[in-house]
Write a structure and sequence with these properties.
By secondary structure, this protein is of the alpha/beta class. The termini are far apart. A hairpin with a 6-residue loop joins strand 10 and strand 11. It has helices at 2-40, 64-72, 86-99, 108-112, 114-121, 141-154, 171-174, 178-188, 215-230, 257-269, 301-315, 317-320, and strands at residues 52-55, 77-79, 102-105, 127-134, 159-164, 194-196, 201-202, 211-212, 234-239, 242-244, 251-252, 274-278, 289-290, 324-330, 348-353, 358-365, 368-375, 382-388, 393-395, 401-402, 410-414, 419-424. The strands form 5 sheets. The chain has an 8-stranded parallel β-barrel with strand order 1-2-3-4-5-6-9-12, surrounded by 5 helices. It is 36% helix and 24% strand.
Length: 425
């Protein structure tokens, strides 16, 4: 009986060994085939990572590990905030440089004695530019213009950073009509980049669901067109923190993956060349904020979501770095104010969406054209049906170009705020 049992166990062990080796060989063979398949496809590459800026970034005395954590989330720029003197700024610049981050410099001395500060710091490798003014009012524009010119006289290379108000701002800030503020600001100021504030996703008090402020698209249309005419980069915002209005007007909710994707991909669809995140750290004096980095320096749940979506963009840097917006349309049951209804671009015979519709953008980067389709909704999935000519390929999440059989229309589902990307030469 023992001999029989030993033979049975021996046979079972042999069979298990054969099965294990077979699975191992099959797995290795599959991985080898996948590697060869990826090697055979064209990948859109870039030597430059798509830039991302942290508003209210790391405070004074932050460690090199803190800067590494910031870099790991995708950030390549830090807007210095709460820095009291030039010595604190210099320490931050050294640490930022060690991990490959550049900074927009801001401290009281910059306002009091800009020539001294700029001349002392402008050759530091981590200096990207100088903070001039956030959200200047209509009455501030002349003084801001003079300050920008003065900064530029001390440093012709560094950016004089100004961030403008959107056209839906209160009349007491921008005057009436709002478009006059926009026109005056973009004419009077010697802008090197065109940046404006807009946080589109809100929850009104007493209401459970998120709403997207439709005037966001009108502002994207205005600012993108103006950046194009001025031939300067468009810089746009992504709300990365939650905030409740103490006045009871509602709140900006803790961002979901859908919220982040909608903001990021819509900005990219309009040709944005810098994603600015408000805020990265939680300000000490504002108890109603919750940012990716908490007051105690630990990560909130938003940090992981931010890192995930930012890495999606980084993998597609070859598509978006230097991309020019050619045209943008919108689909859906309601046409956002100031936007255009879809006109099928060349090489496409069908683009059909359901739900809340989509942003449809035509971009160009070098010899390549891109069609980008972004789900309007941060909360609901969207079905897409599309048909194109044979030269159009799909761009996957790793920036590989995939051949598509366009003998019949293709269907897919876009996640909340998600997008699909197609390309041709």
């Amino acid at each position: 009986m023992r001999i029989v049992l030993r033979k049975v166990l021996s046979c079972l062990f042999f069979l298990f060994l054969v099965l294990f080796v077979s699975i191992l060989f099959s797995s290795c063979h599959k991985e080898e085939n996948e590697d060869k398949y990826e090697e055979s496809r064209e990948q859109i590459k870039s030597s430059i990572q798509f830039p991302m800026l942290a508003w209210i970034g790391l405070p004074p005395k932050s460690s090199v590990d803190d800067y590494k954590t910031m870099k790991a989330a995708g950030f390549t720029y830090d807007l210095l905030t709460y820095y009291r003197n030039i010595e604190q700024v210099k320490e931050a610049l050294d640490k930022a440089q060690s991990v490959g981050i550049k900074c927009i410099v801001n401290c009281p001395e910059l306002g009091n004695n800009p020539q001294k500060v700029i001349n002392k710091l402008k050759n530091h490798p981590a200096v990207a530019g100088w903070f001039v003014k956030d959200e200047p009012k209509r009455g501030d524009l002349s003084a801001v213009a003079e300050k920008m010119k003065r900064f530029h006289s001390f440093d012709s290379k560094g950016i004089g950073y100004v961030n403008l108000l959107p056209t839906d701002s209160p009349i007491d800030l921008i005057g009436n009509p709002p478009i006059k503020y926009f026109n005056d600001a973009t004419t009077m100021l010697p802008l090197q980049v065109l940046s404006f504030t807009f946080y589109p996703i809100v929850v009104h008090d007493g209401k459970p669901e998120r709403k997207v402020n439709g005037l966001w698209y009108e502002n994207l249309e205005l600012f993108a067109a103006k950046a194009k005419s001025l031939n300067i980069p468009l810089w746009t915002f992504v709300l990365a923190s939650s905030y409740h209005h103490p006045t009871g007007k509602g709140s900006y909710p803790e961002p979901t993956l859908g919220d982040l994707r909608l903001q990021i991909y819509s900005n990219l669809a309009y040709g944005s060349q810098m994603l600015q995140y408000y805020t990265y750290t939680t300000p000490q004096e504002t108890p109603y904020y919750n940012a990716p980095i908490k007051k105690d320096g630990t990560k909130s749940a938003t940090y992981g979501k931010l890192r995930e979506v930012n890495n999606e963009v980084i993998r597609l840097s070859g598509v978006f770095v230097g991309a020019k917006m050619i045209n943008v349309w919108h689909t859906g049951p309601q046409q956002p104010k100031g936007t255009k209804a879809l006109v099928l671009p060349k090489n496409f015979s069908l683009i059909k969406t359901d739900g809340d519709g989509a942003v449809v953008s035509l971009l160009k980067n070098g010899k390549r054209n891109y069609l980008m389709i972004v789900n309007h909704s941060p909360t609901k999935k969207m079905n897409l049906e599309i048909k194109a000519t044979s030269i159009v390929k799909e761009v996957d999440k790793n920036a590989y170009l995939n051949v598509v059989n366009w003998d019949k229309s293709r269907t897919c589902v876009l996640e909340p705020g998600g997008m699909k990307l197609y390309s041709w030469e």
